[in-house]
């Protein structure tokens, strides 16, 4: 028969090694998604016209710009701003990254990251240009897996009531719509 103290030691050691493995089953995609997002960002930032012929032919960075005009309730005053969409794709039609931005009474940026053309991560940042262009007043990030929301985190720094309507959108829905629009082009 085995020593009871040795059995207790063996049981505790087994639990210490076994329990962390169980805890990682449901959450192991978060570090993987974060690493993938960092990798795509580094490729996007690093890519320029001075790469090898293979890289020039494989990755495609794109940008489109537009003007947005909205009118007040009296239809006498208008607000003019701009919009842009940045993309990072390959020539096989895989979309890795789409960024949608506009500067209507603040600067709103939404970034969408795709793996095998499925949305896996999205983030939104709203900056208040009136006080400081670099001043982020709201930030949200969401992780997805197989079309399901895994996690959502939002930080409200100094969000004003007038800006609340701008952030009340589904990042998943817009990310899917932007992907469809991009694929139609």
Helix coverage percent of residues? 25-40%
Note poorly predicted spans: 9-28
Amount of beta strand: 35-45%
The string of secondary-structure elements, in order, is: HHHEEEEEEEHH
Main sheet?
7 strands, antiparallel
Question: How widely separated are the two ends?
Answer: 73 Å
How would you classify the quaternary structure? Answer: single chain
Q: For the residues shown, what is the average pLDDT?
A: 74
Structural class comes to alpha+beta
Alpha plus pi helix count: 5
Number of domains: 1
Q: What coarse outline follows from CA principal-axis ratios?
A: globular
Q: Any idea what the radius of gyration is?
A: 23 Å
Question: What is the strand tally?
Answer: 7
Give your account of this protein's structure.
By secondary structure, the protein is α+β, with helices and mostly antiparallel strands. The chain has one domain. It contains five helices and seven strands; from the N terminus they run αααβββββββαα. It has helices spanning 4-27, 29-46, 53-58, 164-167, 171-184; strands at 59-71, 78-90, 95-102, 107-115, 118-127, 136-145, 148-156. It has a seven-stranded antiparallel sheet with strand order 1-2-3-4-5-6-7, with helices on both faces. The longest helix is centred in the first third of the chain and has 24 residues, at 4-27. Residues 9-28 have low confidence and may be disordered.
